[in-house]
UniProtKB/TrEMBL annotation:
Keywords: Disulfide bond, Glycoprotein, Immunoglobulin domain, Membrane, Signal, Transmembrane, Transmembrane helix
GO CC annotation: membrane
Name the record gives this protein: Junction adhesion molecule like
Record's keyword annotation contains Transmembrane: yes
Its membrane topology: Single-pass type I membrane protein
InterPro entries noted in UniProt: Ig-like_dom, Ig-like_dom_sf, Ig-like_fold, Ig_V-set, Myelin_P0-rel
Domain Ig-like: 1-93
Lineage of origin: Eukaryota, Metazoa, Chordata, Craniata, Vertebrata
Cell compartments where the protein resides: Membrane
Ranges that cross the membrane: none
């Protein structure tokens, strides 16, 4: 979840707090706080939340893994810049979609289509998409297809053993 402060001055992030509430009238609980170069996830988010933004570039973005239906609600990012008392707040509403079927059975030699849709309440475009493959619970994931709008080609690229087999 993005949380970037647009500033022209050279001030860096001093503190980032991410809070969660079911709706705007509910009490908030901490998801994660960052202070003095230390990021601390808390409570039920402890093993699933990570600060992924570059705080030296005023980015306090959050990564939430293993999203559950109970995670649906309002996440509020609060950023404080060094030597400033003002707190910048940005709410992000998270909607959790129902789980899609996990198993897809296809005959050898057949073609199949898999869908991935992303919905956001923000007016931002997708800049990166990765399709991953794993043949079992104890195997390493392989990148099947990758798209990064920041790359020169700006198109999907199939990788590894999936090259020339995936569009």
């Amino acid at each position: 979840m993005g949380c970037v402060v647009q500033r022209t001055e050279e001030k860096h992030v001093d503190r980032v707090d991410w809070l969660f509430s079911k709706d705007k009238d509910d009490a908030s609980e901490y998801v994660l706080f960052y202070y003095s170069n230390l990021s601390v996830p808390t409570g039920r988010f402890q093993n699933r939340s990570h600060l992924v933004g570059d705080t030296f570039h005023n980015d306090g973005s959050l990564l939430l893994q293993d999203v559950q239906k109970a995670d649906e609600g309002i996440y509020t990012c609060e950023i404080r810049l060094k030597n400033e008392s003002m707190v910048m707040k940005k709410p992000v509403e998270l909607w959790v979609l129902p789980e899609e079927p996990k198993d897809l059975r296809v005959r050898v030699g057949d073609t199949t289509q898999m869908r991935c849709s992303i919905q956001s309440t923000e007016e931002k475009r997708v800049t990166k998409v990765n399709w991953m493959f794993s043949s079992g619970s104890h195997t390493e994931e392989e990148t099947v297809l990758s798209y990064d709008s920041n790359m020169r080609s700006g198109k999907f690229q199939s990788l590894g053993r999936f090259r020339n087999r995936v569009d």
